[in-house]
């Protein structure tokens, strides 16, 4: 079957994959815990918002599976159907809080251009923690068009050398086990103004964001990756729509609005189309607020 190029926007039948990766509530050895949210962490398909069954149960296939026939074009010749693009999110609670992968899956499905989505997200994990996950090669071998990598929230700021090395090693694993996949780095956001973490770092929120932006850009340059400027979109939204609460109560994790803003950035980056063209809004978010966040994401990405 022909595979859609990256980025793409296609109409296709969605697939929900079940991946038996890291165990639920697993934090890999050596990781910090500042992204932990009450101990909840997991490895999931990004489809909980659309009713994907629990890990280890069923695997659903698309209409091109064995026993079905391929469509024909106007000349009667058989045409290979285009496979939906496939994206694997690798990160920690900044990824799994509010199920960002599931939100992306829902957003692309509503746009009649669904993606196959899965994730490996462990509380507090650094990039290096994922590199040593013994189960990662088998997950990568499932074959992905895009692999999104999110680092621990302060590691590009306080330990850039280790962060870059982790990204380099993870990029090598992606190339070896899921050859041809595009590496996309999930640039995260600064702590909220007034956060104790900012005082520990001796930084303002703006300074922390600049350090994160610079760190992800440098790692992308070394590996040939692409940056999804989620953090910069947060900085822009805090100026353009300050009444929209992007942070959870801890001043670190995303609220529903914050996760939707991140999802909108990924939609614009990965599909190459405007997030504001999507009509999908998660339950609990006002449509007018979703419109404003999508506009910020599009402007940040340049759509």
Protein model, in words:
This protein is an alpha/beta fold and 303 residues long. The chain has one domain (12-61, 81-301): SGNH hydrolase (Rossmann fold). It is built from 11 helices and 8 strands. The strands form 2 sheets. Strands 2-5-4-6-7-8 form a 6-stranded mixed beta sheet, with helices on both faces. It has a two-stranded parallel sheet with strand order 1-3. It is globular. The two termini are 30 Å apart.
The residue ranges in which pLDDT falls below 50 over 5 or more consecutive positions are 1-33, 38-70
**Helix and strand element order:** EEEEHHEHHEHHEHHEHHH
Number of domains: 1
CATH-assigned fold name: Rossmann fold
CATH superfamily: SGNH hydrolase
CATH architecture classification name? 3-Layer(aba) Sandwich
How would you describe the oligomerization state of the chains in this entry?
single chain
The overall average pLDDT, rounded, is 81
Sheet with most strands? 6 strands, mixed
């Amino acid at each position: 079957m022909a595979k859609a190029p990256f980025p793409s926007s296609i109409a296709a039948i969605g697939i929900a994959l079940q991946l038996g990766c890291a165990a639920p509530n697993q934090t890999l050895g050596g990781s910090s815990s500042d992204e932990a949210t009450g101990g909840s962490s997991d490895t999931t398909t990004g489809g909980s918002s659309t009713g994907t069954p629990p890990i280890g149960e069923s695997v659903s296939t698309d209409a091109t599976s064995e026993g079905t026939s391929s469509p024909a074009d106007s000349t009667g010749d058989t045409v290979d159907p285009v496979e939906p693009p496939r994206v694997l999110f690798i990160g920690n609670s900044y990824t799994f809080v509010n199920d960002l992968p599931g939100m992306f899956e829902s957003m692309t499905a509503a746009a009649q251009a669904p993606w196959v989505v899965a994730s490996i997200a462990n509380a507090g994990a650094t990039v290096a923690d994922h590199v040593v996950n013994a189960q990662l090669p088998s997950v990568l071998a499932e074959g992905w068009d895009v692999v999104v990598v999110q680092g621990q929230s302060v590691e590009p700021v306080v330990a850039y050398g280790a962060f870059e090395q982790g990204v380099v090693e993870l990029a090598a694993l992606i190339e070896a086990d899921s050859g041809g996949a595009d590496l996309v780095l999930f640039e995260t956001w600064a702590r909220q103004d007034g956060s104790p973490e900012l005082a520990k770092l001796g930084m303002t929120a703006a300074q922390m964001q600049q350090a994160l932006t610079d760190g992800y850009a440098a790692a992308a340059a070394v590996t040939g990756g692409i940056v999804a400027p989620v953090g910069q979109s947060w900085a822009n939204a805090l100026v353009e729509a300050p009444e929209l609460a992007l942070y959870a109560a801890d001043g670190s994790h995303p609220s529903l609005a914050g996760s939707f803003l991140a999802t909108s950035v990924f939609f614009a980056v990965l599909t190459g189309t405007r997030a504001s063209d999507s009509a999908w809004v998660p339950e609990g978010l006002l449509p007018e607020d979703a419109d404003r966040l999508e506009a910020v994401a599009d402007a940040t990405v340049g759509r």
